[in-house]
């Protein structure tokens, strides 16, 4: 039995047209995996749609795409696509192989055999635990089946029990709080979760129940850094977990770069160091995704666009100035795609040399240094900042 879990696709979202189209591209990557790996169950753990931004035409395309799958699809709406009378889930007729959860419910698929339990958000917030209510209903369903003489000859113990929710394993969450205690005492083999964009790259366990935040398959914004993908789980005939693979699906990969310079004195050095750091971070990223699956990341090898959030700190030579416009042009010329550039450079001063100057800034430095000898470490840090800012305000003047 193969199960694929995904979450937080936010189809319809995106500040730019490219970001919006990338989300649909990743959705089709996921559908391709479902078909290629002959997945039996596709679990979509909420925030599948961006309710207020997705178009009617796009919803119809999604419905058509899902209807073409041989897999059974289960959607548990989240806080960005709650199941209301105005939602796309209520407005459109979804295909027979797609189940959109609203109230807590357990679906029994005798032919597989598997049960899938879930519930959808009906508001932006769900302060009470949908998981706890659904787990209780699931137990009642099992009890009812055990008393049903007309039920399939397949024993209930032969069923794989799955669950699908948007929520947090956090007692005080406003978004369907789920306790580890409830997870541990549930009879689910696996609980697919959505809401937290940073996926858990290893399955968690509470009692005999495996669970994980799948994470968004495509970054929603530049804060969604690192690996993004989906879970592919393979269960044996006796419902033991045979293998787990996390497959990278993202078209966009955001990576934070921090460069700290001492006495920086050229643009060329900035670009050289950026290229070295980029090569290292991409190497680390590739190593991470290759370690998460048994060859599937190499098999699919989806094309990715690396975009960097660049922060430059440290000190700069007194005779050199970084013009942000010039640096932006150099980044473009060298093919370094970036979403954010933050420059925080202070001038590098020869404190010892300035302290003996017969000048106003020399007097300033001597006074600060004298006070630093008399104070504790916390106060000393404040004085060091004051020294740097004061000298920068003097500029190149030595009067």
- What fold name stands as the CATH topology of the largest domain? Purple Acid Phosphatase, chain A, domain 2
Order of helices and strands: EHEHEHEEEHEHEEEEEEHHEHEHHH
Fraction in beta strands: 15-25%
For the termini, the CA-CA separation is 80 Å
Oligomer: single chain
Q: Give the overall average pLDDT.
A: 92
Structural class: alpha/beta
Biggest sheet: strand arrangement: 4-3-2-1-11-12
Question: What kind of sheet is the major sheet?
Answer: 6 strands, mixed
Total domains, how many? 3
Uncertain parts: none
Rg from C-alpha positions?
28 Å
Question: Which architecture of the largest domain per CATH?
Answer: 4-Layer Sandwich
Give the helix level as a range of percent.
Answer: 25-40%
Categorize the overall geometry: elongated
CATH class of the largest domain: Alpha Beta
The total of helices stands at 11
Present the secondary structure layout.
Layout: E1 2-6, H1 17-36, E2 41-44, H2 56-67, E3 72-75, H3 88-91, E4 98-100, E5 105-109, E6 114-118, H4 130-147, E7 160-166, H5 180-185, E8 190-194, E9 204-206, E10 209-213, E11 229-235, E12 241-248, E13 252-264, H6 267-291, H7 296-300, E14 305-316, H8 324-333, E15 338-347, H9 351-354, H10 360-372, H11 377-394
Helix pairs in contact: 10-11
Structural key phrases:
399 residues, Purple Acid Phosphatase, chain A, domain 2, six-stranded mixed sheet, 11 helices, DNA_Repair-Maintenance_Comp, hydrolase activity, Calcineurin-like_PHP, Metallo-depent_PP-like
